[in-house]
Design brief:
Blueprint lengths: L4 E3 L9 E6 L12 E7 L11 E5 L8 E2 L12 E5 L4 E6 L7 E3 L21 H10 L9 E5 L8 H13 L4 E5 L8 H10 L4 E6 L5 H8 L4 H15 L2 E7 L8 H11 L5 E5 L6 H4 L1 H4 L7 H13 L4 E4 L23 E2 L16 E2 L13 E4 L2 E4 L1
């Protein structure tokens, strides 16, 4: 698991800043104003103009530079970081070498999902958007994909629209996945504002947990949310914005997976993708575990039926956050390696598995509860047996 944020020992009166990492100590001075220099060891060059100088190896008691702990030694050229010298708070916002860059935009939300992995906080965190507006111009234009997550990003109203415009202008070739509950998109005018940005590779990813309104509302802990979300999905189709539907599978949702698949196929045949997702053992899930946990082995028939309904309807369908040994082999073609690299692990039962490179693995929080049916595959030519 990769550490993205920590508190550094270094303190100063310098203002918080966002900077792109450079490993070139000879960078011309006019180009240094947005860069933070990263060195392996303490140096004695002229580093005037850099926002900061980070070193991988050094003694913070004797060096004027900022010493990074070993867990941050993965940082490299073109990564983008945010640092507050007053508090020492440090976070890697963007990693050039990673395919899993997702930017947390706000912690505020208008739902309180039973299994929320980022429990909402009613705070003024507008500084996060300010930091992202600084970061986006620094991100490599060669980045193939990036995500915005929360909280609920549409609560930002026009500031969200500003973020969309910035990504369109600075990262025109980068696919942008935006996670939203879709409730405020029930207002057609707001959906139209998003469409008017004209982002060429935008997709809004919207969770839908049941075909029954009361069940969806119970999962998200918000009365009327089902009607708002479904209307939001339809509004996005009206204005021409691509949509993905996400379904988190747990004890409250798995029994009606086939009916939900039929509902999606019948009412939303225009969606670009349907993602059937496993449970992450963090956030509110830990408090509601007994009401949520179900062994994936126990819902294989419902999952299989749902996938068949969706794929037969011509809908691009994927299974996320599931291990191959828990799925029937005919579902392997739908399984994706989707867990972000910074929180992806494997269990001791996986040791020696010949399918590990193809398997999605586990969230780092999975040791709290995971299936007792995890088995390692042994390659036996054209077939696989479990160890």
């Amino acid at each position: 698991m990769t550490l993205l944020g920590t508190v550094l020992d270094h303190r100063s009166d310098q203002e918080p800043f966002v900077a792109r990492i450079s490993t070139n100590p000879n960078l011309p001075k006019p180009m240094r104003s947005t860069e933070a220099l990263l060195l392996d060891d303490e140096g004695d060059g002229d580093y005037t103009g850099f926002r900061a100088v980070f070193v991988r190896h050094g003694d913070q008691a004797t060096t004027p530079h900022i010493v990074l702990p070993p867990d941050l030694h993965y940082l490299g050229a073109e990564d983008v970081v945010r640092y507050n010298p007053h508090t020492g708070n440090f976070r890697a916002l963007y990693r050039r070498s990673s395919p899993n860059n997702s930017l947390l935009v706000t912690e505020r939300c208008n739902s309180k999902c039973l299994m929320c992995s980022q429990p909402p906080r009613d705070i003024d965190d507008s500084y996060v958007v300010d930091a992202l507006m600084e970061a986006i111009p620094l991100i490599s234009r060669a980045t193939p994909a990036m995500g915005f997550t929360g909280g609920e990003i549409t609560l930002l109203q026009d500031r969200f629209i500003g973020l969309l415009r910035a990504t369109k202008n600075y990262l025109p070739d980068t696919r942008l996945d935006v996670l939203t509950n879709g409730r405020l998109l029930s207002y057609l005018q707001y959906a139209q504002k998003i469409a008017d940005v004209g982002h060429p590779q935008l997709i809004l990813c919207i969770p839908l947990y049941s075909d029954v309104d009361t069940l969806h509302d119970f999962v998200v802990q918000a009365k009327g949310a089902f009607d708002q979300t479904t209307r939001g999905i339809i509004n996005l189709a009206r204005v021409g914005v691509a949509t993905e539907i996400r379904v988190v599978i747990h004890q409250q949702t798995y029994k009606r997976l086939p009916q939900l698949a039929e509902f999606i196929a019948r009412n939303f045949p225009f969606v670009a993708h349907v993602a059937l997702m496993g449970l992450e053992m963090t956030g509110f899930t830990k408090a509601n575990l007994e009401a949520l946990w179900v062994d994936p082995v126990d819902y294989r028939s419902e999952l299989s039926e749902a996938v068949e309904i969706l794929s037969c309807a011509g809908l691009h369908t994927s299974i996320y956050n599931h291990q191959l040994c828990l799925l029937p082999e005919y579902l392997w073609a739908f399984a994706r390696q989707s867990i972000s690299d910074w929180k992806n692990i494997y269990m001791p039962e996986c040791d020696g598995c010949s399918k590990m490179r193809e398997c999605g693995g586990f969230f780092a929080s999975a040791p709290l509860r995971y299936s007792s049916n995890i088995k390692a595959f042994i390659d036996e030519g054209h077939r696989y047996a479990v160890k």
